[in-house]
Specification:
By secondary structure, this protein is an alpha+beta fold. The chain has two domains: about 5-65, no CATH class; about 100-280, Sulfite Oxidase, Chain A, domain 2 (Alpha-Beta Complex). About 15% of the residues lie in helices and about 30% in strands. It has eight helices and 14 strands. It has helices at about 25-30, 35-40, 45-50, 100, 145-150, 180-185, 210, 265-270, and strands at about 5-10, 45, 55-65, 110, 130-135, 140-145, 155-160, 165-180, 195-200, 205-210, 220-225, 225, 235-240, 250-260. The longest helix is centred in the middle third of the chain and has 8 residues, at about 180-185.
Length: about 280
């Protein structure tokens, strides 16, 4: 081990005297580190060297450089005279309560937010021009304006939402028109087995009619007690609680009832046709 000793005159600023803690005195360490490049990576000084310094006093400090030891880091966020912790504090996340774990599909994590994810840009929609078209294998085709939709019944729905990107939010509060009300008005024929949901901006997705008529689907107009914002699907969004969120299409403009299944946008790009989060049906085989 090679040891060398040199003297430096260090200007100590601030009102003194300060408590002396050997080489752990942070205020003195800050002063002598100005000369660290001259004397080496590790600086050691004794109690008697520090002594008591008065305000703005130039004090002769004898510094010993021990080149085989690492330089102690200066941590200005630590209060003066306080020894920093020997090792960083590692916080472990609290385990989720059993009732939350039971509601979380495999591979998902819980969030309190509702992240905004969608294909393409957010469309600019005017309620004066917007229409919901219901056609295909139905007894009564519909072209509904926003004013027409106001005559439909409204219900509330509290449901969990699970995204294929692995986040889940529990107890999302929606309000809107039950899908069953649209089915009753359009009356799909017995040969209609699938429905293709089309949206402003070119997005679409598909569902079996049996799922569409299950009773828990909603054509939502409100989210968490407030009208839908454009990023969340204004003016109308389909909510499909039992499927991954890409089936809950935003900016809905059309429902077409079909005899055969027609894949939607993400389904054509390899996403699973059924999208059941409890079976982790993220992608097709």
């Amino acid at each position: 081990m090679r040891v060398s000793t040199r003297d430096f005159r260090v200007l100590i600023r601030g009102r003194g005297p300060w408590p002396v803690h050997g080489d752990r005195n942070v205020r003195f360490r800050r002063a002598i580190l100005d000369h660290a490049d001259d004397v080496g990576p590790r600086l050691i000084a004794s109690h008697s060297t520090f002594g008591r310094a008065s305000s703005d006093a130039a004090t002769l400090v004898r510094l010993t450089a021990v080149e085989s030891l690492p330089r102690p880091p200066f941590t200005p966020e630590i209060p003066m005279g306080v020894r920093p912790p020997a090792r960083p504090v590692r916080l472990r996340p609290r385990p989720a309560p059993p009732e939350i774990v039971a509601r979380t599909p495999p591979g998902q994590f819980i969030t309190q937010r509702l992240p905004v994810l969608h294909y393409g840009d957010i469309p600019v929609i005017s309620l004066d021009d917007w229409r919901l078209t219901v056609d295909g294998l139905v007894e009564q085709s519909l072209s509904l304006s926003w004013h027409d939709l106001e005559a439909f019944p409204r219900v509330g729905l509290t449901a969990d939402m699970h995204c294929v990107t692995r986040w889940s939010r529990l107890d999302v509060r929606w309000q809107g028109i039950p899908a069953g009300a649209v089915l009753a008005a359009s009356r799909p024929t017995p040969t209609a087995r699938f429905v293709l949901i089309s949206c402003a901006g070119g997005y679409d997705t598909n569902l079996p009619v049996a799922d569409f008529a299950a009773g828990d689907l909603l054509l939502a107009t409100d989210l968490d007690g407030e009208p839908l914002t454009p990023e969340h699907g204004f003016p109308l969004r389909l909510v499909v609680p039992k499927r991954y969120a890409w089936k809950s299409a935003k900016w809905v403009t059309g429902l077409r009832f079909l005899a055969g299944d027609e894949p939607g946008f993400w389904e054509r790009y390899g996403y699973h046709n059924d999208a059941d989060p409890w079976r982790e049906q993220r992608f097709s085989e």
